[in-house]
Specification:
Order of helices and strands: HEEEEEEEEEEEEEHEEHEEHEEEEH
Strand content: 25-35%
CATH class of the largest domain: Alpha Beta
Shape: elongated
Structural class: alpha/beta
CATH architecture of the largest domain: 3-Layer(aba) Sandwich
Number of domains: 3
Helix content: 10-25%
Length: 376
């Protein structure tokens, strides 16, 4: 009983000795409110006395503050009322996509014994919007199976429209504007009367079906930051394809977005990818096999390649190609698996599909460039 009474008396004494909050006002200013993942952002905190009083005649005083939404907590010197606000620069982390709330500022006062604390919010919060990164894609990938025209030319890369494919002999009815005179003059030295014309091939607009694996089981071994890298890969491939006038269908869990290379499609795709998350509920639903089943009947672009961006699975021993993807051919063109979160870059083959394993987005795109060079 004596110990309980002593503890109660100590708590009462502590509560009586917690000093009241200083009458402060504060604000938060962000250097940038809309950024891409990894960009440097700072929050400028301004704290000042609300009105002249007995607290302000003593000069600058340290005040304990914290900023929710960041890891910062410290003490700031608040000048006298007539000397303007105290300013503190705080770094804001942008490693995760989405809309993040910063603030409001919190003022803390503690009793001398360190038992009790008073907390009061100052000012209003602000919001920073973090989108995915767009990394350079070193080499365009082949998005359709290469086809051969009557003269032996091939097409099937990211470019669209007409592409120069070489020279051939002139045929009756050919456009005379396509005659290549320098080559014709050299050919006539050996074959009098020869005419050589430029041969062009029709390259279709590029098309791609991209599947972003959002199942929680795919990212258990690699971690949530690997999923952020996966979204960066999806954003980089989508941006390159759409800026070239191509078409893309992106499937992420139960959501999908199709863009046809129109004006504003890049921004629309990036805004959509900003809020894609790991689907933790789907992994617990019995009988649900993931996004692979949704590739059928969704109006996937015919003959387009399919790129699946996934993780390492639940453990390192899991197969490179997820179970829901095995056997998915359907004649829709090649299937490429990008597996993020791996220890070192590697190119393998599994279930008849090419698998590129890389630790992050940049390494995956570099491996993509090397793989494209081998496929030529």
């Amino acid at each position: 009983m004596a110990a309980a009474a002593a503890a109660a008396a100590l708590l009462v004494a502590a509560s009586l000795t917690v000093a009241p909050h200083l009458p402060l006002t504060g604000s938060i200013e962000l250097t940038r409110a809309v950024v891409t993942r990894g960009d440097a952002v700072s929050a400028r905190l301004r704290v000042s006395h609300l009105a002249p009083g007995r607290w302000t005649r003593r000069g600058a005083r340290p005040v304990a503050l914290s900023l929710p939404g960041t890891a910062w907590a410290g003490r700031a010197l608040v000048p006298r009322h007539d000397e303007g606000p105290g300013v503190v620069e705080v770094s804001v982390r942008t490693t995760r996509r989405g809309r993040h709330r910063i603030g409001p500022l919190r003022q803390h006062r503690r009793d001398p014994f360190g038992l009790l604390e008073r907390c009061r919010e100052i000012g209003a919060p602000v919001t920073v919007l973090v989108g995915p990164r767009i990394l350079p894609v070193p080499t365009p990938m082949r998005t359709r199976a290469a086809r051969t025209d009557a003269d032996g030319g091939t097409w099937g890369r990211l470019e669209g429209g007409l592409s120069f494919a070489g020279l051939r002999s002139y045929h009756l009815g050919d456009d005379v504007r396509r005659i290549h005179w320098p080559s014709t003059l050299r050919a006539r030295a050996a074959t009098p009367g020869a005419l050589l014309v430029r041969r062009f091939t029709d390259v279709p607009d590029p098309a791609l079906t991209l599947v972003l694996d959002t199942r929680a089981a795919s990212w258990m071994a690699a971690g949530p930051l690997a999923f952020e890298e996966a979204v960066d890969v999806a954003a980089s491939l989508s941006a390159q394809l759409l800026r070239g006038g191509g078409r893309i269908l992106v499937i992420a869990g139960a959501a999908q977005l199709r863009c046809d290379g129109r004006r504003g499609d890049v921004d629309r795709m990036l805004a959509w990818l900003t809020f894609r998350k790991i689907d933790r509920i789907e992994a617990r639903v019995p009988g649900r096999e993931g996004p692979g089943g949704r590739l059928r009947g969704l109006g996937a672009i015919p003959d387009a390649a399919t790129v699946v961006v996934t993780g390492r699975g639940q453990r390192d021993s899991d197969p490179a190609v997820p179970g829901w993807l095995r056997g998915h051919r359907d004649g829709r063109g090649p299937v490429l698996v990008l597996r993020l979160g791996a220890g070192s870059p590697a190119r393998t083959s599994d279930a008849g599909m090419t698998v590129l394993s890389a630790p992050g987005a940049s390494a995956a795109l570099r491996l993509w460039a090397q793989s494209s060079g081998q496929d030529r």
